[in-house]
Model the fold of this input.
Amino acid sequence: MTVRAGQRVRVRDGWRTVRAVRGEPYASGGLAVVLALDEGPSLRLPAAEPVTVRDGGDAPSPSRP
Done:
């Protein structure tokens, strides 16, 4: 599963809605995924980092951005 705009992701202080998703290369190699959120700063994660995602009324499930 992938993270898409409109889904909610779990962050330290609660759930945030994803507004946009983009990939960026790390200077040292590899890929980062940047999630633009409805509140606060964007979240930048390694592409293989699992995140917890909610899609509408569905129960949370681990996902990869």
Residues 5 and 25 are 20 Å apart (CA to CA). The first strand starts at residue 8 and ends at 11. The chain has a mean pLDDT of 86. The beta strands are 8-11, 14-25, 31-37, 43-46, 51-54, 61-63.
